[in-house]
Amino acid sequence: MTAVEEWDEGPFQPEAITVRVPAKINLSLSVGPLRPDGYHELVTVFHAVSLYDEVVARSARGIALSVEPLRRDSDVDAVPADERNLAWQAATLLAERCGVEPNVRLTIRKDIPVAGGMAGGSADAAATLVACDALWGTGLRRDELHDLAAQLGSDVPFALHGGTAIGTGRGEHISPVLASTGLEWVIAVLDAGLSTPKIFEACDARRRRSGEQAPAPGVHPDLMAALRSRDIGAIGAALYNDLQPAAVEVLPQIGELLALGVAAGACGSLVSGSGPTTVFLVDSPLAAANVEAELRASGRCRAVRRARGPVPGANVVNVR
Ligand code: ATP
């Protein structure tokens, strides 16, 4: 007779939770008129792509954080490892909200290019909410995590959500978009900084010069129809960003990169958000290889990566 092992009925206390979280690009960005408070109303289509950071949350006394590269060439130098890090702020906020001690050692393994407009910091904050919620057993519902995410920053709720979604307000109101096909991208991060306020100012100045009245922001129906179809060419043609002309004016290299990618076979190209990241939609592995090779050869990019989308938002991938 074999002995039957006793099943421990006590609560499972995980030691370490690993959460994987994707970067985002913007398939469209519609910028409304300048408001009296100095902000613009925005409507964007977020798209989560398969470039990931991982956040590992381990039991500890007090809060500690470290940042390491996930790949050999991931660059983490500019990322603070203290309370300035959005992940640290996320852990503190969750602990306050749930009335628990913020006892956690966070390790951020970065692969999302830093300061590339791909919302890497926001992604880490979203991943930390999910990881600490599981580690501490605080058991918040997704909508409760979403509320905390919105307090941390306008891109954080989408990092929880993933997929393809329309973002309104400051980006924190998310409605999913039905996209019927997977998309392949080549993503290039320009080796030059682009100040977001400067791009918005340049956009306003262009509109003043041309006497153009900015319409209320929205999502173009062509993009919605293209995303529902399986027509990659139509999707490529429907990508748009109201900030792109201003970004190209401020940094002409962006225009050169966009043209280079299309000449190499991309079916669509776009400045993502306020840049300096440019994204190229491709319809075959050959086109992807050609576009990637041309962008690398330009010597203007600090990162050129391939990715597919849409992918899910922050989710637990390992529990120990
Ligand atoms: P934004 O969301 O402002 O558009 P971004 O997506 O361009 O930012 P991030 O990679 O989020 O770029 O980094 C922007 C800055 O935020 C970094 O230079 C860094 O100082 C700070 N930061 C704070 N926390 C993090 C984090 N966890 N990962 C990366 N950067 C962080």
Q: How many angstroms separate the termini?
A: 32 Å
- Main pleated-sheet profile: 8 strands, mixed
Q: Count of helices? A: 10
Strand content: 25-35%
Helix content: 25-40%
Kindly provide the name of the CATH class of the largest domain.
Answer: Alpha Beta
Q: Average the pLDDT over all residues and give the rounded result.
A: 93
Based on CA atoms alone, the radius of gyration comes out at: 21 Å
Query: Within the CATH hierarchy, at the fold level, what is the topology of the largest domain?
Result: Ribosomal Protein S5, domain 2
Order of helices and strands: EEEHEHHHEEEHHHEHHEEHEE
Ligands: adenosine-5'-triphosphate
Please give the number of β-strands. 12
Shape: globular
CATH arch. level architecture of the largest domain = 2-Layer Sandwich
Unreliable stretches, pLDDT < 50, 5 or more residues? none
